[in-house]
Specification:
This protein is an alpha/beta fold. It is about 50% helix and about 10% strand. The protein has 12 helices and 6 strands. The protein has a 6-stranded parallel beta sheet, with helices on both faces. Helix 1 crosses helix 4. The chain starts with a strand and ends with a helix. Bound molecules: calcium ion.
């Protein structure tokens, strides 16, 4: 029986990915001189900031960063992100959250982000939707176990009230996030809100791929029937 929806944050509840990609590019390319494109940060979306930074140093400079060094660079990225101004709530997301509530289902947030500026806005933009005990963030996930590892979603199931994977639906916009949802054994809806081709989400294993959160709001009952069909087969 369905009991909860587990929502990713960036690119699902907020149209924040263009700002994240810009902030990452500014810090890693303009300041630290790494070879990269903005698209790379869409492909890495879902991994923790520490992981993104550590991997780039290892791949391009052959250097292992200490957690303190990675954290310092991630703070710079956070400042660059904040300087770009607030991300707008994703169109359609409030309607999806309302429908989840109307169906008496628990709403859980599962993000790799440690961006306090965003987490603090949740209660203002989506009032009453996410209880603090129903939030999984970079503060919970140990470094090295961000998405695509199933840990964040397994922790989401736990925070939702020790649920089984078949009692939840994941909503994700990024390939690594979809992989994490599926690795946790959960029915995963991919919403392609960014610039990557739609196939990236189906190839990552999404059970269904939609073009926007508005499409999820509009086809909410259809998605619930699809979930039921999958879980009774
Ligand atoms: Ca995301």
């Amino acid at each position: 029986m369905l009991r909860a929806f587990l929502f990713d944050m960036d690119g699902v509840l907020y149209d924040s990915m263009p700002l994240h990609a810009e902030a990452w590019y500014h810090v890693m390319h303009d300041i630290y001189g790494f070879t990269c494109t903005r698209e790379l940060f869409y492909r890495e979306e879902g991994a923790t900031g520490d992981q993104v930074i550590t991997d780039m140093y290892l791949e391009q400079r052959g250097r292992h960063l200490t957690p303190e060094e990675a954290a310092a660079i991630y703070r710079e990225k956070g400042e660059a992100f904040k300087a770009l101004g607030p991300a707008r709530p994703m169109p359609g997301a409030a309607e999806v959250l309302r429908k989840v509530g109307e169906n008496s289902l628990t709403r859980v947030l599962v993000t790799g982000s440690g961006q306090l500026s965003m987490l603090n806005r949740l209660s203002r933009d989506y009032p009453g939707c996410f209880d603090v005990s129903h939030i999984v963030s970079a503060m919970d996930t140990p470094i090295g176990h961000g998405k695509p590892h199933p840990d964040p979603y397994l922790m989401g199931l736990k925070k939702a009230g020790n649920l089984l994977p078949e009692e939840a639906i994941v909503v994700e916009n990024a390939p690594l996030g979809v992989q994490a949802g599926k690795a946790a054994g959960i029915f995963t809806v991919g919403v392609n809100t960014g610039p990557l081709p739609k196939e990236c989400l189906s190839e990552a294993g999404a059970d269904v791929v939609l073009n926007s959160m508005q499409e999820l709001a509009d086809s909410f009952d259809k998605i619930l029937s699809l979930y039921l069909k999958r879980n009774t087969n």
